């Protein structure tokens, strides 16, 4: 008997099929409760098998709006505007300073919410990160760390000079 129990103890002992204690013990207590449970087969049989029935039919499409002259004029205007820009200028039109600042601020909030309070991001680093992602889409290597490799035939010097592997 444990010595570290404070108060009084009740000890129940089993001898054969009887319990020596002043309780109302019944032989029905030895039956598993699962045998007392009613089966739900009657409800399963009453629900019909509601499998969907598939049939072939021709698709019906809603009519697409016809291009108006105003839409064509705007399209031509955008094409003319972008035709004189180089790829970096087009990128900067899509990701202007407001969008970059929004991404930076939300990334910082996300990092703080996930207990990375030392995380800092500046717009210049975000642009470098996005540039590395775009470059990695064109210049494929089997593994990401290979972009920072010191081997002449593997490493990409442009990437390693722009941002450290740990910062990436």
TrEMBL record:
Residues 1-70 are annotated as: Disordered. Residues 43-52, 60-70 have a biased composition (Polar residues). Residues 86-168 form the PiggyBac transposable element-derived protein domain. One of its GO terms (molecular function) is sequence-specific DNA binding. Pfam families: DDE_Tnp_1_7 (PF13843). It comes from the Eukaryota. PANTHER family: DDE_TNP_1_7 DOMAIN-CONTAINING PROTEIN, PHORBOL-ESTER_DAG-TYPE DOMAIN-CONTAINING PROTEIN. This is PiggyBac transposable element-derived protein domain-containing protein. The lineage of its organism: Eukaryota, Metazoa, Ecdysozoa, Arthropoda, Hexapoda.
């Amino acid at each position: 008997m444990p010595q570290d129990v404070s108060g009084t103890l009740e000890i129940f002992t089993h001898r054969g099929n009887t319990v020596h204690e002043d309780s109302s013990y019944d032989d029905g207590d030895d039956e598993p409760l699962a045998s007392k449970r009613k089966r739900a087969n009657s409800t399963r049989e009453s629900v019909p098998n509601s499998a969907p029935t598939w049939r072939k039919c021709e698709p019906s499409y809603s009519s697409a709006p016809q291009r108006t002259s105003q839409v064509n004029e705007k399209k031509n205007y955008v094409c003319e505007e972008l035709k004189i820009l180089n790829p970096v200028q087009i990128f900067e039109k899509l990701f202007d300073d407001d969008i970059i600042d929004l991404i930076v601020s939300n990334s910082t909030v996300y990092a703080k919410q996930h207990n990375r309070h030392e995380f800092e991001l500046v717009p210049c680093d975000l642009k470098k990160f996005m540039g590395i992602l775009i470059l990695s889409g064109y210049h494929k290597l089997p593994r990401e760390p290979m972009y920072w490799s010191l081997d002449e035939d593997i490493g990409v010097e442009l990437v390693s000079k722009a941002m450290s592997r740990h910062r990436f």
